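User: Working on a comparison across species. This one is RlpA-like protein double-psi beta-barrel domain-containing protein from Bradyrhizobium canariense. Can you predict its structure so I can line it up against the others?
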Amino acid sequence: MGFRSSAAICGAVIALAVSVSIARCEAGGVHSSAVDNAASGETIVGAASMYNPFKPGKEEGGPKTASGERYDPSVWSAAIKTSLRKKFGGVQFGAKPKYALVEAVGKKVIVRINDVGPLRPGRIIDFNERTMRHFDPSLERGVIPDVKVRPLAGGDWTPGPVG
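Assistant: Here's the predicted structure for RlpA-like protein double-psi beta-barrel domain-containing protein from Bradyrhizobium canariense:
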């Protein structure tokens, strides 16, 4: 009888732990301290802007990113300044995208660095539309100053807000 009770309690504890873990992932993504610990390399500080090659009148190069993927405004991605390519493991055609921790206006997000570009002076990163809306919901700013970008080690990250 004691063994059955222990097994039932153990099963309940495991089920609770799994449900809390799933809820935590859905609510806020990865815990901030875990991401901070995985950030490698120096912090790059500069301005961020948004790009969307499908909007009329834009100067962007087209719908294909440097990694070979098609631009998608609904995912968490960005283009890093071409001169920073090596700091992010060499974003290249056909290569797996890299990841970065981006901080601005009191928010943090993990983005896939799947593109590069010459960008305008002072800008270090161009967000796709979803990422920019995270930092500027109305898209009225156009440019976000003092953005901090740090490469993340490894390729097993889930892009999105960091809680």
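For your comparison, note: The chain has three helices and seven strands.

User: Helpful, thanks.
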